[in-house]
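Researcher: Go.
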Amino acid sequence: MSTPLLLRSLLFAPANEPRKTRKLSASGADAVVLDLEDAVARDQKVAARPIARAALAGIHGPIRCIRVNAFDTGLTTADVEAVVCADLDVIVLPKAESVVDLRRLDAILDAAEAAEGLKRGSIRVLPLIETCYGIQNSAGIARASTRILAVAFGSGDLGRDLALPTIRGDLTAALAYGRGKIVYDARAAGLGAPLDGPYLNVRDQVGLEADCRAAAALGHGGKVCIHPDQVAVANRVFGPDPAEVEFARKVIVEFAAAEARGSAAIAVDGVFIDYPIVIKANAIVALSDAIAARAQAGAA
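Model: Structure:
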């Protein structure tokens, strides 16, 4: 089994604030995003491009991403051309709404990679699906490009697009359809579990954990984080439960013994086990081992 992709946490930081970007390597996040979009004032976006590109070289450990501006701003192509380099892993595309958006980005990336002497396909893409139209088209978006690393649910912008009359209120019910649909669409496209949108109250750790658990229960595999203090909670909730890992290891051992006896259907601690459950057990163990390996590498 291949090593699973770790995307429990995706931490954003303004691309033009070196004080914040310098801390990203030590954040513990699985992936970090230098943001050229919402976190940068309109009149600073062009100036932020070379700052973002230069900052990439100083980030070690997490997957390195840059969020460019959406196509409707007219800035996307120049953003991509300015930041594509060997130190960049992923372009995050906001407000992805259609297959056309992803194919358009593919073409821009093809040209930018060629200009930088990079192998075609070196830069992956993470679409943020954060409008009603995008949710409607999320199945196509998830299949639109071989560059797609994962998809993410943009709950903040979606709440605005739904014209919900609250900033601090509970949006759980209103967002439920899109939050669930994107999971099925991502998995049907052969992608890993999507990332859930951000929890906006950065001081509320209890609320953050509850929100992460609600997303995990729907099948999300990680969380967009907007503050470093959110990373540890996201990593813990979206990592496998230690008791579940222990049970998965027991399942693998006992099933292997049963299979050697000619049986492929057994009970372990009262739980029915057959091949699909063993596949799931192996995935749980692989995720746990990948997390442990990453922690060991970070400590070295």
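Model: The longest helix spans residues 275-299.
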